[in-house]
Design brief:
The structure is a homodimer.
Chain A lengths: L7 H22 L3 H10 L18 H12 L4 H25 L4 E2 L2 E2 L1 H5 L1 H20 L4 H29 L7 H25 L4 H28 L2 H4 L5 H4 L5 H7 L4 H9 L10 H10 L2 H23 L4 H13 L1 H5 L16
Antiparallel strand pairs in A: 1-2
Helix pairs in contact in A: 1-3, 1-4, 2-6, 3-4, 3-8, 3-16, 4-6, 4-7, 4-8, 7-8, 8-9, 9-15, 12-14, 12-15, 13-14, 15-16
């Protein structure tokens, strides 16, 4: 239960959690007991042995987007709740499988599900969450349910294409990687965010046009977020981000600041190319690399882009819908998701510069 | 292309392949190039490097079931083709993931996809095939398409539950395993066969009742088939089955003949329990184990059950539909799928004995 003191986005996320959680738990409880236990652990509801633990839940951000978008077109929460539950299930399918693919052995401060329960069960549990997500939407008998199912399937396809692009990025030589490769990989995140808005509007009885514009706004939000994450991973405070210091650099990941620096044709970029050898760098080199990326303009470039995508997302939000309390809540949630970018203020006018222009 | 000489089931399977293949290839070609290459290899269309090879395709059995069931309710093939393609995609999703979970490193005489392309890409390719399967059905604008999508989602859920039961069977002590555990695991195969009939009838414009009865017939067919596979693995000719001699015994798999023998309370069953220690037996012990299973009545029990399930499947087929050339083709296909059982003739009257009665 939420405390009464919460306001703004934390209250919205808490309300989304309170709405979505019962249906989510009911769905998971219907799985084979071995998969239900694994998923209960993954969702942060229990320990490895099924015991109750201090909650380690996710943020229910996607559920909140679905619910707010439904509310924004005038629908009661009950009409869009199956969509909110479905996107949370698909999001968690992708976490279960991506942790295996990316060899990430920790999530939210605990061993990842594949580490705790083995590879076979983690793969199968991910598959199971797709099935449960489909259940939520294919059970709806109206045309909106059919459309929402199609939207979820499209999101699934685009997420998978994005993840494939991300895996390809990992194995590509750093010198050959462009911003286009990076953008192809962002679909792993942005596709589901698009569908949150599109499904929320559709199940809420809104028009296809509003679904598309609001979906686009959420996709831009996702781009801003992804880029802000890249920046925080290099220059953020680990105490705030909760992630290991410069984990991306340690793994020689080709994030956008790195790509922009490598393609900057600056002296610092050339120096970085020599240091960035597709293998994990020595611990002592991490800060030197961060400095080279900054000197080559990679930091500023990505900060500018991230801010502009947030600005565009906010602009598209107000294009899609007339001003209302819900639209204000959505805008607040957008800013809450990328706080570092929102804090640093607007990026000024102009279109987002073509990413290729960085190189 | 099929040769003109083929008759009966081989002709039917060939025709199903010719109908489904273009849509299947088109769907796969739309994936990220890395996933398209992996899937092309998995489907047997090309080698690891993308080169053309002698075809190593699957049998298109599930596509044939969908198409025949649609035809049986009077629909043209085009109406049900998306269903045929969708079930083949879901079947191959399960092969890709199950090969990883079951640590099977070969399929159709070649390295499994996860061995050839790595774990990450094989997991993601399996996910991608679910997405493509959904595309086939969510693109249909009619009510039948919505129902068929729901049926496919239900099949997915049941397959996953069955695979979870199968994984649990692997890790359970042999002494504790019952026929009920085995039956729970059979859903990994039978759920999709049920949906082949149900989706074919539904997209073909048939009634919900015919869909259910014909689906039930295909589920029985699947049970007969699964049990026949268990038998062939122990007593079949590897030159015919194409599988390693007694591979299941070598892996100490708790297949139904083993379970029936272990629970037979016979002297041979007790002797088998001593030998069957949940670890792979010595090579020289495999034939001794097979003999103990036979002496304990495990072979005859499962032969009887497999025959009865085939008989029931055939009976339910003729209950669901009036006699016609297509129904005869379906019956021929049923017998073709479990040739050893069909050859050995009818099991006589009576209901299938409760499996638990074996122990």
């Amino acid at each position: 239960m939420r405390t009464r003191q919460e306001h703004g986005p934390p209250r919205i996320l808490g309300a989304a959690r309170d709405l979505a959680l019962p249906a989510l738990r009911e769905a998971v409880d219907g799985l084979h007991p071995d998969l239900a236990r694994l998923c209960g652990y993954h969702f942060g509801w229990c320990g490895i042995d099924g015991s109750l633990v201090e909650s380690k839940e996710g943020k229910f951000l996607r559920a909140a987007l679905v619910l707010l978008c439904g509310q924004a077109v005038g629908a009661p929460a009950a009409d869009v709740l199956p969509g909110a539950v479905a996107v949370e299930l698909v999001h968690n399918f992708s976490l279960l499988h991506d942790d295996i693919m990316d060899n990430d052995d920790h999530r939210r401060g605990r061993p990842s599900a594949w580490v705790a329960f083995g590879l076979a069960n983690a793969i199968l549990a991910g598959d199971a969450l797709i099935g449960l997500a489909l259940d939520q939407l294919t059970g709806l008998k109206n045309e909106a349910g059919r459309t929402a199912t199609r939207m979820l399937a499209e999101a699934l396809n685009e997420m998978i294409r994005g993840q494939a692009a991300d895996l390809a990025l990992d194995s590509a030589p750093a010198a050959e990687v462009t911003a286009e490769h990076y953008m192809a990989a962002t679909y792993k995140t942005t596709a589901l965010l698009y569908s949150c808005a599109a499904i929320g509007v559709t199940l809420g009885g809104g028009s296809a046009e509003v679904a598309t514009v609001l979906g686009g706004a959420c996709r831009k939000l996702g781009l801003s977020w992804q880029m802000a994450n890249d920046l925080e991973n290099i220059w953020g405070d680990p105490a705030v981000t909760g992630k290991p210091v410069q984990g991306d650099l340690r793994q020689a990941k080709k994030t956008l600041p790195v790509i922009a620096a490598l393609r900057s044709r600056s002296a610092a970029g050339t120096q970085l190319a020599g240091a960035f050898s597709d293998t994990a760098p020595a611990e002592s080199d991490l800060y030197a690399q961060a400095m080279l990326i900054e000197r080559a303009g990679g930091r500023e470039h990505v900060e500018t882009l991230s801010r502009r995508y947030l600005d565009q997302a906010l602009a598209e939000l107000t294009t899609a819908l007339p001003a209302s309390a819900v639209v204000t809540e959505l805008a607040d949630l957008f800013r809450f998701i990328v706080p570092s970018v929102a804090r640093s203020g607007a990026a000024g006018g102009g279109e987002v510069r073509a990413l290729g222009a960085a190189g």
